[in-house]
């Protein structure tokens, strides 16, 4: 049986949000180090997506520890793009060919859908989706309560 409830947020994320649940902060949580660099073996489309993502996220958000997840995301994106192009290029009487001549669904349709599922899962883990970014206020200090200094 799996763990119940939502996955716990990383300590750094809870601190940035101001720890609204007032849960104890894990002072011993490991902090990943190192800058993630784009590997040479990625496809050209995946390398382009890598650069696009790394240019759009705050520095230090994706570290060397996250590089494998970002690699998988970028390759899934490249696969999704290629499958979509193949669907568009194999047209029949109805426009995009979603069905083969034998009447079975196009294999590119399944490839595209599987890649989209992979991308959605990895985007959540990397904090790339709008829902994951919602509520984050990077670099903006939380407003202090006027009573905060009274209790030591």
What does this protein look like?
The protein is mainly alpha-helical and 152 residues long. It has a domain at 34-133. The chain contains 5 helices and 2 strands; from the N terminus they run H-H-H-E-E-H-H. It has helices spanning 11-16, 44-56, 67-89, 107-126, 130-133, and strands at 91-92, 95-96. It starts with 10 loop residues before the first helix and ends in a 19-residue tail after the last helix.
Distance between the termini: 43 Å
Helical proportion?
Answer: 40-55%
Broad structural category: mainly alpha
**Adjacency order of strands in the biggest sheet:** 1-2
Provide the residue-averaged pLDDT.
81
Q: Which ranges are low-confidence, i.e. pLDDT below 50, for 5 or more consecutive residues? A: none
Report the major sheet.
Answer: 2 strands, antiparallel
- State Rg: 21 Å
Strand content: under 5%
User: Tell me, what's the shape?
Assistant: elongated
SSE string, helices as H and strands as E: HHHEEHH
How large is the count of helical segments? Answer: 5
Tally the beta strands.
2
